[in-house]
Amino acid sequence: MGIPYSKQINLAFDQVTPLVAEGFQVLDTTKNIAVVLLWLEILSALIIALNLVCLVAVLITLNPDLEEERRALVTPAVRWVARETWKVVGVLGRWWIAVVVLGFGVYGLGLWMWFRHVGTDVEEVEGPGEEGQKGDGGNEKGNKESNKSGQNA
């Protein structure tokens, strides 16, 4: 009784081992997905917080009753952003604008070429009358069957 039982156990281990390996792959993939979702959640929280700050700034800017708050909060922030932007433009010159525009242009051209040729397929190149005119020579299964019948004869 010991030998058949051990054969059954070995057979069970042989069947379970690939499943365990697949389980580890699934766990690794799940870990990667969890890390990506973590960063996505942090990014979305930052964007929501930035939206809240912008909405409060717009509220303070547009409400005539909050003129003093606008002068105290919004005006210095806008001045600082304008001053820092002008420093960056002064240091880099106007070349960075050309580089950005050229980069977007090349990217757009690449996207246009990609989407223009995505639907192109070998079957579309062939004419509509050529479809179905291939004999058994073009079919791999037909070649195997003809070889078998030739070998049997």
Automatic annotation (TrEMBL):
Residues 131-147 have a biased composition (Basic and acidic residues). It comes from the Eukaryota. The keyword Membrane applies. The chain crosses the membrane at residues 36-62, 95-115. Residues 125-153 are annotated as: Disordered. Keywords: Membrane, Transmembrane, Transmembrane helix. This is Uncharacterized protein.
